[in-house]
Amino acid sequence: MEVSQEVKNEKKIMVKLECMHKAFGSNKVLNGVDLQIRKGEVVVILGPSGSGKTTLLRCINFLERANQGKVTVNQYTVDCKKASNERIRTLRTKTAMVFQQYNLFRNKTALQNVMEGLIIVRGMKKCDAKVFSEQALERVGLADKFDFYPSQLSGGQQQRVGIARAIVMQPEVILLDEPTSALDPELVGEVLGTIKEVAKSGITMIIVTHEIAFAKEVASRVIFMEGGVVVEDGTPEEVINHPKELRTKQFLSRIH
Ligand code: ADP
Q1: Best substitution site from 55, 207, 210 to test ligand 1's pocket, by max atoms within 8 Å of Cβ?
Q2: Whole-angstrom Cα distance, residue 112 to residue 133?
Q3: Which helix (H) or strand (E) holds 30?
Q4: Ligand 1 geometric centre to CA of 55 (Å)
Q5: pLDDT truncated to tens, each residue of the chain (256 aa)?
């Protein structure tokens, strides 16, 4: 029987983590994480502080190197123990990260911040990088802020520059590490709205956040982590509204 392209895409595994272990000294932070994430899934990772959520994200793009395990992004596999710098560099081009503290260059404008990766990492000509970067800033609602420096932008606008910088690279997967937790409460909505818009484009996303309402609205899948392992994994309806595991129930009752 012939399988349609649509069904094939739906089933395509975009991110695969196998047996991920990471310790900082004697502190065992990841204790064997196995995960498969399909193309287009928007996965929210929930869990108490210190459960290893950020470390897991950072191990996917080798900002941290796991002690053991394998990371595969779009069929490109890197063994955490043995990987050469060359393989790590290649894997990194498949992901883009949005950081809690935005991590923008203070001495560059919004446009220059977004152009940087295209020029330096992709070797794109400046004039082409400018066109793509302007489009990315327009997508996040910052068409009127191209020439503004980070200090002239609100936290929410700075984070939207961070999101533009990620999408302009056209990665296979975007990793977002608590993208709203440094923001004043009144600025959280605009950033979540932007993430929601980007999610609609069908890009695969993995988001660490404490925003439960947002997770319910945007996530196609919710993962609950504790003690460096995946405790529960399912739809938002299953994990947030009808958690099976006691640890998930306890966590949700604390933060609701
Ligand atoms: P979460 O994102 O769930 O709050 P993290 O992954 O940030 O958890 O942290 C898990 C544990 O790893 C914490 O105990 C933290 O102190 C430790 N940790 C994280 N990064 C480092 C690091 N660079 N050096 C030492 N310990 C770290």
Answers
A1: 55
A2: 8
A3: strand 27-38
A4: 6
A5: 455 555 555 569 999 999 999 999 999 999 999 999 999 999 999 999 999 999 999 999 999 999 999 999 999 999 999 999 999 999 999 999 999 999 999 999 999 999 999 999 999 999 999 999 999 999 999 999 999 999 999 999 999 999 999 999 999 999 999 999 999 999 999 999 999 999 999 999 999 999 999 999 999 999 999 999 999 999 999 999 999 999 999 999 988 6
Distance 63 CA to ligand 1 centre (A): 13
In the chain, the N- to C-terminal Cα span, in Å, equals 48
* pTM for this predicted structure: 0.94
Q: Which residue has the tokens 């050469």?
A: 84
Indicate left, alpha or beta for 218 from its phi (over 0: left) and psi (-120 to 50: alpha). Answer: alpha
- Ligand 1, from 24, 26, 45, 255: best to mutate by most atoms within 8 Å of Cβ? 24
